[in-house]
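As a warm-up, study this chain.
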Amino acid sequence: MKKLLLYILKPFSFLPALLMMYVIYSFSAQTADVSGSLSYAVSYKLVEIGNDVLETGFTDEQIGRYAHRIEHPVRKLAHMTEYFLLAVAVSFPFYVYGVRGFALMLVAGLICVGFAAGDEYHQSFVAGRGPSKKDVMIDSIGAFFGIVCVRIICWTAMTPFRVARRIEERARRRERAKEIAREREHARRREHERMRAKERERAQIREGKTRRVR
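Now compare it with the structure written out below.
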């Protein structure tokens, strides 16, 4: 029953990836003006928070000027973050299904890079926006770090189970070795008994012949 339940629930592990794809697609569907306003709002908020934390005393005009300066890096960082999260959401279910090592990086990487390229093509139909090879490269970097992060986390999280499995496997091998040794010992004893039985039989035959001669 437990195995059946896991078999049914496993496909739902892909839902976060599909949700993340929808989120990325929604951001890409925004026009240049809407996307730019959102980027500026985020940049402004970051500068404002920094101003409050560091108590630099910037005026609204200065905050706005610094927000314009960091708007472009913020946009690119947002790209990386989106695809970092997408790679995590894509890699984890494949890890659940047993895809490991280079195969995981290849499959998840192809999905993320392919989606990034398709998303940039999709932007060519959005007002004021267009495709960018540079953005695909930035997205790919974010995806790469996401995949590596999943591998590190899953490897670390699975370490106790791997150790337990190795200990169990070693115990099984030791038990099997003992069983083989016992079987060999039984076989040796049986062979020894068989040889002794033959010797007794030969001795009885010789004794019988001796009696007949007498």
